[in-house]
Amino acid sequence: xxxxxxxPPATLEVTAxxxxxxxxxxxxxxxxxxxxxxxxxxxxxxxxxxxxTLSHHFKILREAGVIATHxxxxxxxxxxxxxxxxxxxxxxxxxxxx
Length: 98
Known about the structure:
Layout: E1 2-4, H1 14-22, H2 24-35, E2 40-41, H3 51-64, E3 67-72, E4 75-80, H4 82-88, H5 92-96
Antiparallel strand pairs: 1-3, 2-4, 3-4
Helix pairs in contact: 1-3
């Protein structure tokens, strides 16, 4: 069974996106998503933070519209909303991750 988390906002707000990307842990998560070929399961990220802390960071990124999350079975998968980010803030991701 596949379930989807609440949809990210249709319109990305610059303050929410910049707040989400300002944290070093979240920036590291977004970097991994940017380098990935597709969605990454929550448990597959290269990080040392606790699972509950990681969930908090994913929530911040999801609510800002930076990522989208869906669940398949017992796994939650995250994907970077590259097209939406590039449309709302052209060049931002390229500037952050050259």
